Amino acid sequence: MAFDVKKVVTDRTAEGRSVFAEETSVEPGPVLGLDIYNIWGTDDGIPFVGAGDNPATVPYPFFPGPGGTRFVVVRFPPESAEQEEPDGADPEEIAADAERRQPGLIGVFEPDTPGMHTTDSIDYGICVDGEIYLELDDGAEVHVTPGTCVVQRGTRHAWRNRSDRHCTMVYVLVGADRKSG
């Protein structure tokens, strides 16, 4: 099934008039079997809006620092369709390629526990198509289906698509400070 993502961005002119600043198709940044559509991002800290001087998108690093945001669409393939590493493939080269395609993404994943990761962010996610399981570090799972909204608050987790088709999730990531203790 074709999946087309279109981005529409508004702004204001110096005179204060609302305008469409951008209307484009967004191509996925494929990485490790995922299709990731980087829609928009804001710099770390408190974002601002103004009259004609709004900053451009800041899509990387993938996970924002405190106060920064990212807006992404992720299409998860079925686990059965995930690409196997070719025989003789260098895992370091695969990781380096993934880092080139989606800077800041790969470093959060645990090499000994595929898919598990922890981020210093609050992630708002909504399933818009397909189904997926959200797994926590103790093995507890929730079945996520279209319309399910997830608030992920910096916990260790993994996404598992056990179905036979893609699952599409839309996320807004908000960078946070991790409280120790």
Short description, anyone?
The model has no long low-confidence stretch (mean pLDDT 92). The chain has one helix spanning 91-101; strands spanning 5-12, 18-26, 29-31, 34-42, 69-76, 121-129, 132-136, 141-144, 149-153, 157-160, 167-175. It is mainly beta.
**CATH top-level class:** Mainly Beta
Helix tally? 1
What is the name of the CATH architecture?
A: Sandwich
Helix percentage: under 10%
Summarize the main sheet.
6 strands, antiparallel
Order of helices and strands: EEEEEHEEEEEE
Principal-axis shape: globular
Protein name: Cupin domain-containing protein
Domain Cupin type-2: 115-172
InterPro entries: Cupin_2, OryJ/VirC-like, RmlC-like_jellyroll, RmlC_Cupin_sf
Pfam family, one: Cupin_2
How would you characterize the overall build of this protein?
Helix content is 6%, strand content 40%. The protein has 181 residues and is mainly β. The chain has one domain (5-175): Sandwich (Jelly Rolls), CATH 2.60.120. It has a 6-stranded antiparallel sheet with strand order 3-4-5-11-6-9, covered by helices on one side. The protein has a 3-stranded antiparallel sheet with strand order 8-7-10, with no helix packed on it. The longest helix is centred in the middle third of the chain and has 11 residues, at 91-101. The termini are far apart. The mean pLDDT is 92.
